[in-house]
Design a protein that fits this description.
binds adenosine-5'-triphosphate; 23% helix; 36% strand; six-stranded mixed β-sheet; 20 strands; 348 residues; 8 helices; alpha+beta
Length: 348
Protein backbone atom coordinates (compact mmCIF):
# COMPACT_ATOMS: atom_id res chain seq x y z
CA UNK A 1 0.00 0.00 0.00
CA UNK A 2 1.27 3.49 -0.73
CA UNK A 3 0.65 7.00 0.57
CA UNK A 4 -0.71 7.67 4.04
CA UNK A 5 -3.18 5.29 5.69
CA UNK A 6 -5.03 5.74 8.99
CA UNK A 7 -7.20 2.80 10.06
CA UNK A 8 -9.58 3.11 13.00
CA UNK A 9 -7.17 5.52 14.69
CA UNK A 10 -8.34 6.86 18.06
CA UNK A 11 -6.81 9.15 20.65
CA UNK A 12 -8.43 10.47 23.84
CA UNK A 13 -7.38 13.19 26.27
CA UNK A 14 -8.86 13.03 29.78
CA UNK A 15 -11.56 10.62 28.62
CA UNK A 16 -12.57 12.85 25.69
CA UNK A 17 -12.08 11.34 22.21
CA UNK A 18 -10.18 13.98 20.18
CA UNK A 19 -9.84 11.49 17.29
CA UNK A 20 -12.40 8.70 17.19
CA UNK A 21 -11.96 5.69 14.86
CA UNK A 22 -10.49 7.74 12.01
CA UNK A 23 -10.32 5.93 8.66
CA UNK A 24 -8.48 8.02 6.09
CA UNK A 25 -6.16 7.38 3.15
CA UNK A 26 -4.17 9.85 1.08
CA UNK A 27 -2.69 8.50 -2.17
CA UNK A 28 0.65 9.69 -3.60
CA UNK A 29 0.10 12.97 -5.45
CA UNK A 30 -3.30 13.45 -3.83
CA UNK A 31 -4.37 16.42 -1.68
CA UNK A 32 -6.90 15.68 1.05
CA UNK A 33 -8.28 18.59 3.05
CA UNK A 34 -9.38 17.85 6.60
CA UNK A 35 -12.14 20.28 7.37
CA UNK A 36 -14.21 20.99 10.45
CA UNK A 37 -15.04 23.46 13.21
CA UNK A 38 -12.63 24.43 15.98
CA UNK A 39 -11.87 21.59 18.41
CA UNK A 40 -13.23 18.79 16.19
CA UNK A 41 -9.90 16.93 16.14
CA UNK A 42 -8.21 18.01 12.88
CA UNK A 43 -4.84 18.91 14.42
CA UNK A 44 -4.88 15.79 16.62
CA UNK A 45 -5.39 13.62 13.53
CA UNK A 46 -2.53 15.39 11.75
CA UNK A 47 -0.28 14.95 14.80
CA UNK A 48 -1.15 11.24 14.93
CA UNK A 49 -0.11 10.92 11.28
CA UNK A 50 3.14 12.79 12.01
CA UNK A 51 3.98 10.75 15.11
CA UNK A 52 3.78 13.81 17.35
CA UNK A 53 1.03 11.88 19.20
CA UNK A 54 0.71 8.13 19.57
CA UNK A 55 -2.63 6.44 18.93
CA UNK A 56 -4.55 4.70 21.74
CA UNK A 57 -5.75 2.22 19.14
CA UNK A 58 -5.77 1.75 15.38
CA UNK A 59 -2.99 1.77 12.83
CA UNK A 60 -0.98 4.41 10.95
CA UNK A 61 1.04 3.39 7.88
CA UNK A 62 3.13 5.29 5.33
CA UNK A 63 3.95 3.44 2.14
CA UNK A 64 4.41 -0.21 3.13
CA UNK A 65 5.66 0.61 6.59
CA UNK A 66 3.58 0.50 9.76
CA UNK A 67 4.28 3.63 11.81
CA UNK A 68 1.95 3.14 14.74
CA UNK A 69 -0.07 0.15 15.90
CA UNK A 70 -0.28 -2.06 18.99
CA UNK A 71 3.29 -3.26 18.69
CA UNK A 72 5.18 -0.46 16.94
CA UNK A 73 5.75 3.26 17.10
CA UNK A 74 8.05 5.04 14.67
CA UNK A 75 9.09 8.52 15.93
CA UNK A 76 8.38 11.60 13.77
CA UNK A 77 11.97 12.07 12.59
CA UNK A 78 11.99 8.55 11.12
CA UNK A 79 8.61 8.79 9.33
CA UNK A 80 9.74 10.66 6.21
CA UNK A 81 6.99 13.26 6.57
CA UNK A 82 7.19 17.01 5.93
CA UNK A 83 5.42 19.35 8.32
CA UNK A 84 4.23 22.88 7.59
CA UNK A 85 2.40 24.99 10.13
CA UNK A 86 0.52 28.26 9.99
CA UNK A 87 3.34 30.27 11.59
CA UNK A 88 6.07 29.20 9.09
CA UNK A 89 8.59 28.74 11.97
CA UNK A 90 11.68 29.69 9.93
CA UNK A 91 15.06 30.09 11.62
CA UNK A 92 15.50 33.89 11.80
CA UNK A 93 19.31 33.78 11.97
CA UNK A 94 19.66 31.63 8.83
CA UNK A 95 19.21 32.89 5.27
CA UNK A 96 16.79 31.26 2.85
CA UNK A 97 19.34 28.79 1.48
CA UNK A 98 20.42 27.67 4.96
CA UNK A 99 16.80 27.36 6.10
CA UNK A 100 15.98 25.07 3.20
CA UNK A 101 19.22 23.07 3.58
CA UNK A 102 18.58 22.52 7.28
CA UNK A 103 16.24 19.57 6.82
CA UNK A 104 18.46 17.58 4.47
CA UNK A 105 20.11 14.63 6.15
CA UNK A 106 23.56 13.18 5.54
CA UNK A 107 24.37 13.98 1.93
CA UNK A 108 27.56 15.14 0.20
CA UNK A 109 27.76 18.97 -0.13
CA UNK A 110 27.29 18.85 -3.91
CA UNK A 111 24.06 16.81 -3.59
CA UNK A 112 22.77 19.18 -0.88
CA UNK A 113 23.44 22.17 -3.10
CA UNK A 114 21.61 20.56 -6.03
CA UNK A 115 18.54 19.77 -3.92
CA UNK A 116 18.37 23.31 -2.54
CA UNK A 117 18.96 24.95 -5.94
CA UNK A 118 16.21 22.83 -7.48
CA UNK A 119 13.70 23.68 -4.74
CA UNK A 120 14.52 27.38 -4.75
CA UNK A 121 13.98 27.37 -8.50
CA UNK A 122 10.69 25.46 -8.30
CA UNK A 123 9.38 27.65 -5.49
CA UNK A 124 10.39 30.81 -7.33
CA UNK A 125 12.78 31.76 -4.53
CA UNK A 126 16.15 31.69 -6.34
CA UNK A 127 16.47 35.49 -6.22
CA UNK A 128 16.01 35.41 -2.43
CA UNK A 129 18.59 32.69 -1.64
CA UNK A 130 20.70 34.96 0.58
CA UNK A 131 17.82 36.92 2.11
CA UNK A 132 16.89 36.57 5.78
CA UNK A 133 13.29 35.59 6.65
CA UNK A 134 12.33 38.97 8.16
CA UNK A 135 13.00 40.69 4.83
CA UNK A 136 10.53 38.45 2.94
CA UNK A 137 6.77 38.78 2.43
CA UNK A 138 4.39 36.33 4.11
CA UNK A 139 3.91 34.40 0.85
CA UNK A 140 7.67 34.15 0.31
CA UNK A 141 8.24 32.98 3.88
CA UNK A 142 5.57 30.32 3.46
CA UNK A 143 7.24 29.13 0.26
CA UNK A 144 10.57 28.87 2.16
CA UNK A 145 8.83 26.85 4.90
CA UNK A 146 7.43 24.54 2.24
CA UNK A 147 10.80 24.21 0.47
CA UNK A 148 12.42 23.32 3.80
CA UNK A 149 9.77 20.67 4.46
CA UNK A 150 10.25 19.27 0.94
CA UNK A 151 14.06 19.19 1.04
CA UNK A 152 14.37 15.71 2.59
CA UNK A 153 12.03 14.36 -0.14
CA UNK A 154 9.14 13.29 2.13
CA UNK A 155 6.51 10.85 0.88
CA UNK A 156 3.87 12.59 2.97
CA UNK A 157 3.29 16.29 3.60
CA UNK A 158 1.22 17.30 6.62
CA UNK A 159 0.09 20.91 6.69
CA UNK A 160 -1.88 22.65 9.46
CA UNK A 161 -3.71 25.76 8.22
CA UNK A 162 -0.66 26.53 6.04
CA UNK A 163 -2.15 29.46 4.15
CA UNK A 164 -4.37 31.08 6.76
CA UNK A 165 -1.65 33.54 7.84
CA UNK A 166 -1.55 35.00 4.32
CA UNK A 167 -3.52 37.86 2.84
CA UNK A 168 -6.54 36.39 1.03
CA UNK A 169 -5.30 37.30 -2.48
CA UNK A 170 -1.94 35.67 -1.79
CA UNK A 171 -3.65 32.70 -0.11
CA UNK A 172 -5.26 31.48 -3.34
CA UNK A 173 -2.14 31.90 -5.41
CA UNK A 174 0.35 30.39 -2.94
CA UNK A 175 -2.12 27.60 -2.13
CA UNK A 176 -2.65 26.61 -5.73
CA UNK A 177 1.05 26.81 -6.65
CA UNK A 178 2.13 24.87 -3.57
CA UNK A 179 -0.35 22.07 -4.07
CA UNK A 180 0.41 21.86 -7.80
CA UNK A 181 4.06 21.23 -6.89
CA UNK A 182 3.16 18.59 -4.28
CA UNK A 183 0.93 16.78 -6.82
CA UNK A 184 3.72 16.93 -9.38
CA UNK A 185 6.23 15.46 -6.90
CA UNK A 186 3.80 12.65 -6.05
CA UNK A 187 3.64 13.63 -2.37
CA UNK A 188 0.60 12.46 -0.38
CA UNK A 189 -0.67 15.70 1.20
CA UNK A 190 -2.99 16.04 4.17
CA UNK A 191 -3.96 19.63 4.86
CA UNK A 192 -6.01 20.95 7.79
CA UNK A 193 -8.34 23.87 7.25
CA UNK A 194 -11.49 25.23 8.87
CA UNK A 195 -12.43 27.12 5.69
CA UNK A 196 -14.87 25.22 3.44
CA UNK A 197 -14.12 27.49 0.45
CA UNK A 198 -10.41 26.70 0.74
CA UNK A 199 -11.11 22.95 1.01
CA UNK A 200 -13.36 23.06 -2.04
CA UNK A 201 -10.85 25.05 -4.07
CA UNK A 202 -7.70 23.13 -3.12
CA UNK A 203 -8.61 19.56 -2.13
CA UNK A 204 -8.91 16.55 -4.44
CA UNK A 205 -10.92 15.07 -1.60
CA UNK A 206 -12.32 16.52 1.60
CA UNK A 207 -12.81 14.80 4.98
CA UNK A 208 -15.30 16.68 7.15
CA UNK A 209 -14.90 16.13 10.92
CA UNK A 210 -17.11 16.75 13.93
CA UNK A 211 -16.52 15.70 17.56
CA UNK A 212 -13.46 13.63 16.68
CA UNK A 213 -15.16 11.68 13.89
CA UNK A 214 -15.09 11.93 10.12
CA UNK A 215 -18.72 12.60 9.19
CA UNK A 216 -18.27 12.46 5.43
CA UNK A 217 -15.43 12.17 2.95
CA UNK A 218 -15.39 12.46 -0.81
CA UNK A 219 -14.70 14.94 -3.58
CA UNK A 220 -15.64 18.57 -2.88
CA UNK A 221 -18.58 18.13 -5.30
CA UNK A 222 -19.76 14.99 -3.41
CA UNK A 223 -19.90 16.86 -0.14
CA UNK A 224 -21.56 19.93 -1.62
CA UNK A 225 -24.17 18.17 -3.74
CA UNK A 226 -24.76 15.02 -1.65
CA UNK A 227 -24.34 16.07 1.99
CA UNK A 228 -25.19 13.34 4.51
CA UNK A 229 -26.77 15.54 7.18
CA UNK A 230 -27.75 19.07 8.24
CA UNK A 231 -24.28 19.74 9.71
CA UNK A 232 -22.55 18.94 6.41
CA UNK A 233 -25.04 20.97 4.39
CA UNK A 234 -24.56 23.95 6.71
CA UNK A 235 -20.79 23.72 6.59
CA UNK A 236 -20.65 24.53 2.87
CA UNK A 237 -23.13 27.41 2.60
CA UNK A 238 -25.69 29.49 4.39
CA UNK A 239 -28.99 27.64 4.59
CA UNK A 240 -32.56 28.23 5.70
CA UNK A 241 -33.99 25.44 7.88
CA UNK A 242 -37.61 24.38 8.12
CA UNK A 243 -39.04 21.48 10.11
CA UNK A 244 -42.05 19.29 9.43
CA UNK A 245 -43.41 15.76 9.21
CA UNK A 246 -43.37 13.47 6.21
CA UNK A 247 -46.78 12.72 4.75
CA UNK A 248 -47.31 11.02 1.41
CA UNK A 249 -43.57 11.20 0.49
CA UNK A 250 -43.47 14.98 1.10
CA UNK A 251 -42.85 17.42 3.93
CA UNK A 252 -45.46 20.18 4.18
CA UNK A 253 -43.75 23.52 4.85
CA UNK A 254 -44.86 27.12 4.68
CA UNK A 255 -43.09 27.27 1.31
CA UNK A 256 -45.15 24.36 -0.01
CA UNK A 257 -44.66 20.61 -0.29
CA UNK A 258 -41.01 19.42 -0.43
CA UNK A 259 -40.45 15.94 -1.86
CA UNK A 260 -39.02 13.34 0.57
CA UNK A 261 -39.35 10.13 -1.44
CA UNK A 262 -37.10 8.04 0.85
CA UNK A 263 -38.76 8.83 4.19
CA UNK A 264 -41.68 7.03 5.80
CA UNK A 265 -44.91 8.77 6.73
CA UNK A 266 -44.83 10.39 10.16
CA UNK A 267 -41.01 10.87 10.20
CA UNK A 268 -39.98 14.23 11.72
CA UNK A 269 -37.69 15.87 9.18
CA UNK A 270 -35.60 18.98 8.57
CA UNK A 271 -35.54 20.65 5.18
CA UNK A 272 -32.32 22.53 4.32
CA UNK A 273 -32.67 25.18 1.64
CA UNK A 274 -29.60 26.65 0.04
CA UNK A 275 -30.16 30.25 -1.11
CA UNK A 276 -29.97 29.14 -4.76
CA UNK A 277 -32.89 26.70 -4.28
CA UNK A 278 -35.39 29.52 -3.78
CA UNK A 279 -36.81 30.58 -7.15
CA UNK A 280 -38.57 33.95 -7.19
CA UNK A 281 -41.19 35.21 -9.63
CA UNK A 282 -42.04 38.87 -9.33
CA UNK A 283 -45.57 40.25 -9.25
CA UNK A 284 -47.28 36.88 -9.28
CA UNK A 285 -50.58 37.16 -7.48
CA UNK A 286 -53.28 34.49 -7.79
CA UNK A 287 -52.37 31.50 -9.92
CA UNK A 288 -48.64 32.19 -10.22
CA UNK A 289 -46.25 29.33 -9.36
CA UNK A 290 -45.19 29.16 -5.69
CA UNK A 291 -46.13 30.76 -2.39
CA UNK A 292 -46.67 34.49 -1.87
CA UNK A 293 -43.87 36.17 0.09
CA UNK A 294 -42.72 39.67 0.97
CA UNK A 295 -39.18 40.90 0.35
CA UNK A 296 -37.66 42.09 3.63
CA UNK A 297 -34.27 43.22 2.36
CA UNK A 298 -32.01 42.86 -0.64
CA UNK A 299 -28.27 43.37 -1.07
CA UNK A 300 -25.93 43.15 -4.00
CA UNK A 301 -22.84 41.08 -3.12
CA UNK A 302 -20.98 41.80 -6.39
CA UNK A 303 -21.54 38.72 -8.58
CA UNK A 304 -24.94 37.93 -6.99
CA UNK A 305 -27.74 39.41 -4.87
CA UNK A 306 -28.93 38.11 -1.48
CA UNK A 307 -32.61 38.59 -0.64
CA UNK A 308 -34.35 37.94 2.69
CA UNK A 309 -38.05 37.18 2.44
CA UNK A 310 -41.00 36.01 4.52
CA UNK A 311 -44.01 34.08 3.30
CA UNK A 312 -47.13 36.27 3.55
CA UNK A 313 -48.86 33.65 5.69
CA UNK A 314 -45.68 32.36 7.38
CA UNK A 315 -43.39 33.32 10.24
CA UNK A 316 -39.83 32.30 9.30
CA UNK A 317 -37.37 34.28 7.15
CA UNK A 318 -35.65 32.71 4.14
CA UNK A 319 -32.55 33.66 2.22
CA UNK A 320 -32.52 33.58 -1.60
CA UNK A 321 -29.64 34.13 -4.01
CA UNK A 322 -30.38 35.88 -7.30
CA UNK A 323 -28.48 37.20 -10.30
CA UNK A 324 -26.75 40.56 -9.74
CA UNK A 325 -29.09 43.54 -9.87
CA UNK A 326 -32.22 41.38 -10.29
CA UNK A 327 -33.60 41.70 -6.75
CA UNK A 328 -37.10 43.02 -6.14
CA UNK A 329 -37.22 46.06 -3.85
CA UNK A 330 -37.89 45.60 -0.11
CA UNK A 331 -41.66 45.47 0.46
CA UNK A 332 -42.37 43.89 -2.95
CA UNK A 333 -44.59 40.82 -3.08
CA UNK A 334 -43.15 37.83 -4.96
CA UNK A 335 -43.93 34.17 -5.53
CA UNK A 336 -41.38 31.70 -4.12
CA UNK A 337 -40.96 28.15 -5.36
CA UNK A 338 -38.33 25.56 -4.36
CA UNK A 339 -35.98 24.04 -6.93
CA UNK A 340 -34.76 20.48 -6.35
CA UNK A 341 -31.11 21.41 -6.53
CA UNK A 342 -29.85 22.93 -3.28
CA UNK A 343 -32.79 21.51 -1.31
CA UNK A 344 -32.13 18.59 1.07
CA UNK A 345 -34.40 16.72 3.45
CA UNK A 346 -33.03 14.76 6.46
CA UNK A 347 -34.89 12.67 9.03
CA UNK A 348 -34.38 14.19 12.50
P1 LIG B 1 -8.70 24.06 15.86
O1 LIG B 1 -9.31 24.23 14.51
O2 LIG B 1 -9.26 25.02 16.87
O3 LIG B 1 -7.20 24.01 15.86
P2 LIG B 1 -8.90 21.15 15.90
O4 LIG B 1 -10.03 20.65 15.10
O5 LIG B 1 -7.55 21.12 15.28
O6 LIG B 1 -9.22 22.61 16.42
P3 LIG B 1 -7.72 19.64 18.06
O7 LIG B 1 -6.63 20.65 18.31
O8 LIG B 1 -7.34 18.39 17.40
O9 LIG B 1 -8.93 20.31 17.25
O10 LIG B 1 -8.42 19.32 19.45
C1 LIG B 1 -9.47 18.39 19.58
C2 LIG B 1 -9.84 18.26 21.05
O11 LIG B 1 -8.81 17.61 21.78
C3 LIG B 1 -10.07 19.59 21.73
O12 LIG B 1 -11.14 19.46 22.65
C4 LIG B 1 -8.76 19.83 22.46
O13 LIG B 1 -8.95 20.64 23.59
C5 LIG B 1 -8.34 18.43 22.82
N1 LIG B 1 -6.87 18.28 22.90
C6 LIG B 1 -6.02 18.33 21.86
N2 LIG B 1 -4.74 18.13 22.28
C7 LIG B 1 -4.81 17.95 23.63
C8 LIG B 1 -3.84 17.69 24.65
N3 LIG B 1 -2.54 17.56 24.36
N4 LIG B 1 -4.28 17.56 25.92
C9 LIG B 1 -5.60 17.66 26.22
N5 LIG B 1 -6.56 17.89 25.31
C10 LIG B 1 -6.19 18.04 24.04
Amino acid sequence: MTGLVLEQVSRSFDGHAAADAIDLTVAPGEVVCMLGPSGCGKTTTLRLAAGLESADSGRVAIGDQVMDDDGAFVPPEARNVGLVFQDFALFPHLDVRANVEFGIGDQPPEARRRIVDDLLERMNLAAHASAFPHTLSGGEQQRVALARALAPGPKVMLMDEPFSGLDFRLRDQVGEETLALLRQLGTATLMVTHDSDEAMRLGDRVALMRNGRIIQQGTPADLYHHPVDVFTTKFFSEISLVGGFVKGKSVATELGLIAAPDLADGTPATVCLRPESLVLTQGGGGGAHGVAATVLSARNMGPYDLVWLKPVTGVAKYLARLGPGTSPAPGAEVQVAIARSGCFVFAD
